[in-house]
Amino acid sequence: MAFTAKDFGPKILELEGISKRTVEEHLKLYNGYVNKTNEVLEKLAAHDGTGANQVYSEIRGLKVDLSFAIAGMQNHEIYFSHLWPNGTALAGDLKKQIEKDFGSVDKYIADLKASGMAARGWVWLVWWEDGKRLINWIGDAQNSYLGWNMKPIMAMDVYEHAYFIDFGAARPGYIDAFIKNLCWETVAKNYDAARR
Fold this sequence. Notes:
Blueprint: H1 20-46, H2 58-81, H3 92-102, H4 105-118, E1 122-128, E2 133-139, E3 150-157, H5 164-167, H6 171-180, H7 184-195
Antiparallel strand pairs: 1-2, 1-3
Helix pairs in contact: 1-2, 3-4, 4-6
């Protein structure tokens, strides 16, 4: 089964504070992850496992690269799916859970911003099934620091490619723009699905 890149619609190019050029370049990167996922899966299907070794082997390289490609594809699909020009309001059960787990929406946003500055690659708002709570989870690469029973409901890309065209090295401005464009309705749907 080959994967195809998702279409996030024309509104993805109309974000407030994140330029059309940045999104277009970012979408090219996402498309590359989709293509590499298909390429690596095809190579693995033809590989017989000969020469497998934990220090270096072709199959080890393919397995590691597959984790990076799939994570890049999936993370970007979450990321682009919940961005909308000027976003939508946080409400309902998700707002209540954020208030319960973080103390208030303002404290959650402060934690999200701090997480965005501390991470080298990604920040995910995850529903942690074992703890029955929400956590801002960071990853230095899209396939690092993974945890079991963590279901991502929001993804913030903090790799430089997500903001350098618009903000240079000023990541805080990008994080503010990202939050402004969050469609909380989509995040809330992800939250409902994660708890099912």
